[in-house]
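User: Last request for today: this protein with adenosine-5'-triphosphate, please.
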Amino acid sequence: MAGKKGTWNMNQEQKEELLHLESCLSLIQENIRLYEAREQAGRKEVTALFQAVKKGEGDSYGQLTASQNILEHTQNALRKNRAALKKPYFGRIDYDDLTYESTERLYIGKNGITKNQTDVVIVDWRAPAASIYYENELGHGFYYVPEADDVEIDLHRKRTYDISDGKLLGFYDDDVAANDELLVKYLSQNKEAVLGDIIATIQKEQNEIIRDIPSKNIIVQGVAGSGKTTVALHRISYLLYNYEDKYKPAEFCIIGGNDMLLNYISSGLPELDVKNVRQMRMDAIFPYFLGNHFKKSFRIVPDLPEAPLKSRLSFVRKLDAFLKKWQEDALSIQDITDPELGVVLSSANMEEARFYHPDLSLFQTEKLFNERLASRIRFLCTERTPEYKKAKLLNYRKYFDSSRHKWTEDSIYLAFLETLSGESEESCSLFSATIESVRKKRFDVYDVASLALIKKRILQKKEMDEFSQIIVDEAQDFGETVYYVLKEIFPPCFFTIMGDVSQNIRYETGMNDWESLKKALFKEERDSFYLLAKSYRNTIEISQYAGKVLEKASQGSYRIQPVIRHGLPPEIHRADTASLPALLLETVDAVKAKNFETIAVVCRTEDEAAEVRSILDITDADSSAFHNGVMVLPVMLTKGLEFDCVILWKPDESRYGNNPREAKLLYVAITRALHELHLMLDADPSSLLL
Ligand SMILES: Nc1ncnc2c1ncn2[C@@H]1O[C@H](COP(=O)(O)OP(=O)(O)OP(=O)(O)O)[C@@H](O)[C@H]1O
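Assistant: Here's the final one, the structure of the complex with adenosine-5'-triphosphate:
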């Protein structure tokens, strides 16, 4: 029998495993030689064909495209084999396939490896059968195959390997994939080392989200460090691998709150074999939908004072009702009667068109009505002369034509805001800042979302169907309005929404619970809500420190369950105000000496961050790129990021008061730290920390 959890198997099996690893490595080396030779030949061929195309020879363009495709394929295979050389696989499953009546032993790796280009020797982690490794327990079970029937199996063994630099360090048989020992080993490494290895330790509850079907909406509430971003990236990789015929990478769009987060996320994608996925900030996706004419003349501003009201469902629903009424008034559905031809288009005909196309904008509906009108006129003029028919068609050509009003999104929005203001004296003053700002073409994210809805309902001429999957990270930082609008403006799209209400840094506008989103927007039977409670990022000591703050941030509604990994307790460095900069320099030097790859000094505001940058003589203030070394950031910009070591600058009562709003900010700051947390103080720490 193979060794129990955590024991190193010093027996025949070990020898067999060593031999197997050797044979895999030599196959990979052979593959690399083969693909290198092919790549060289392919490059020569492409260069020659390129010259031929320039000279305009024969069918060289078609040949060039075909050769470029083959070259790309070869380069891909070469990259995968090279990557597999250090760690060809991380898991193995032995099972009887009861559906196809066979016995299988599959080695699972980050990259699928084949022999003679056809025989699978190592199975890609995204392949359907690999889900057995992550999800099934020993014994009878099933695994899911996209768009096919489940396969019935009897699982005998699940084995996890610890392989580094092509050397087998150990293997463990366990019912649970990637037992805690291996997980903790990975988590104890520095940030960079961890990224590439996660597929070996993906947990069951994470795997369920990664492999859930694409034709549904998913909301994930996960505590800080529970792997939401990680799961989102793996899900994209999984869906593109398994639904290759259905989705192209450019149909995926990742939405985040700021460029730093998007930059951080996108840096992880190539590692997972994903290229060309789109990314946009939340406040950029609506202007993108609104189009170029809009982008030229507007400015996005931070949330205006009325943002809390505008972020709520009640506001966007009122806007939608207003727009429906606007449509109805503009269309005025009544029989259209011609003095000579009689009824040319009946109200019933128009009602029917509206019934079957409820999502068309006013302009699209008018186009449809005009087309129906024209075809009815052609029919009614069958017996008439061509000139008569032509004259009638011309007469009714633009019967429905609201474009003559020259409405714009902002003019309609102003009309709506003014209607709201008319509702009561109170609401007039409630929206005055927004009205003033909109007149100057300055919009916050909720205004641009509203404008996008207006375009969708009234002014849109062509559907926008370029996205099929939208993935929102740090989703709690935005209110329901943006989700309502996103769903309406990209109707064929499915959403994966990742967030943590305890980290809502925009307390008044963002999401402090998921109820309305779950109940009102993503309420289809197949939509799912997942919870991730385990945190993989922080040491126990840091998690417990964060836990105290969390209690105050969200009454402990979603508690953290840390993976057992110990580190140093958070350390307080205290000095008087004049001496604190010197103490900071000393602390930074001390943590740098520990060879941490990423260190962040986290400040309450951007102004303080600028101050600290000058203390540390750091000049890359406006760079939105996440990088190794020391970064100084205001807490708002640290959302979604993580660092080996975090140094908190002055987390005292004046900066983080004892209220849920500031508790959430402090919770975010603390939970950015993987291994060490330091606090620099010239006063007593915030009571949130006591
Ligand atoms: N199954 C896993 N095995 C190993 N490491 C993991 C696993 N899941 C997550 N991690 C690691 O835990 C850390 C946190 O993951 P991630 O940033 O995805 O969490 P998050 O939920 O998005 O966090 P936050 O909400 O705080 O931004 C990362 O270093 C990630 O690599």
